[in-house]
Amino acid sequence: MSLKKTVSLIMLLAMIAMVYTGLMLFITPPGRIAHWAQWTMLGMTKEQFAQVHTTFMVLFITASLLHLYYNWKPMTSYMKNQARQLIVFTKEMTAASVITVLFAAGTLYEIPPFSTFVAFGDAIKESWEKDYGAPPYSHAELSSLKTFLKKMGYDAQKAQSVLKEAGLRFEPGQSLSGIAGENGTSPQGIYELLRAKLGSDAAKGTPVISGLGRKSIEAVAQTLGMGTRQLQNRLKAMGIDAAAEDKFKTVAEEHDRSPADIIEALGFAHD
User: Fold this and answer.
1) SS3 content of the chain, % helix, strand, coil (to 5)
2) Are the beta carbons of 253 and 190 closer than 8 angstroms?
3) Which neighbouring-strand residues pair with 144?
4) Residue 103 host element (H or E)
5) Rounded to 5 degrees, what are φ and ψ at 40?
6) Segment 22-81, tens digit of pLDDT
7) In which element (H, E) is residue 208 found?
8) Per-residue pLDDT averaged across 7-19, rounded?
9) Is 105 exposed, middle or buried (0-12, 13-18, 19+ CB in 10 A)?
10) Mind listing the pLDDT tens digit for each residue in 147-180?
11) CB 29 within 8 A of CB 132
12) How far is CA 140 from CA 36, 68, 170, 186, in A?
């Protein structure tokens, strides 16, 4: 068996695995939604995709170093001129460096088409919220049932009766995700059940909003339950001009404010 060939094949397989898991992570919903809806794709959670991606990255790096070791002479030959003199910045190396820097700079400075590709990924991530909804507050799935009911303003006895009638097994001190896991549902499913049965009994407190930083102004307006023009007018009254497609976080930072500050100024609690 050739170790050199084995290393090359490991690199190939690791690269395929990294591309696959990378693409999955590119389209997965934000963590708050993935945890809330217990999102899976082809039987794997977002965390599992991330874990597999990380381990294969380590394997790829290790194999790459071994590949470089076994192919040192061919690699250095790429950096030699016709006189066989070693020149680091040959035409090929210069071209490779320029392309690499271009991709890095284009991404960091949000230059099309790099920014377009990133925006496309963000749009896919935002679309999941329309399908699954967002948790009422950050990490709601980790709250105990008792805490969740209190935060949402539900009567504990009525809420627990609803869950028992639905055939769910639970303990008041158990987390929403734990209850969901034991009953083959999701924290979102439990919340929707309570809303359907006790929606009118919930205390009308201040909505708790989170996870808006990467959204566009239009998407933020939808999350807040108002029209885009209405949100723009309210922002304008605060001295902030924003287009519908502008990123909420970018708009906030341009005016020396944080997204949380603006959310609270609009009358919403930010978790």
Assistant:
1) 65, 5, 30
2) no
3) 175
4) helix 91-108
5) -140, 155
6) 999 999 998 888 999 999 999 999 999 999 999 999 999 999 999 999 988 887 877 776
7) strand 208-209
8) 96
9) exposed
10) 999 888 899 999 999 999 999 999 999 999 999 9
11) yes
12) 7, 47, 16, 12
Q: Is the dihedral of CA 248, 253, 259, 263 positive or negative?
A: negative
The sign of the torsion formed by the CA atoms of 171, 176, 180, 185 equals positive
Neighbours of 171 (CB within 10 A): 12
* This prediction's pTM: 0.72
Copy the structure tokens of residue 128: 């999941």
Give yes or no for residue 84 having a pLDDT over 50.
yes
Contact present, 56 and 17 (Cβ < 8 Å):
yes
Q: How far is CA 127 from its chain centroid? A: 12
What span, in angstroms and rounded, lies between the C-alpha atoms of 30 and 140?
14
Residue 41 CA, chain-centre distance (Å), reads 14
Residue 204 per-residue DSSP state: -
- Residue 190 has which token pair? 């439990």
List the one residue out of 76, 95, 79 whose CA is nearest residue 87.
Answer: 79
- Identify which of 123, 125, 138, 129 has the alpha carbon closest to the alpha carbon of residue 28: 125
Contact 212, 248 (CB under 8 A): yes
Find the helix packing angle between 3-27 and 114-132, rounded to 10°: 60
Between helix 145-152 and helix 156-165 the angle, nearest 10°, is 120
Please give the sequence-ordered ranges of beta strands (E in DSSP) within 11-95, or none if there are none: 40-41, 44-45
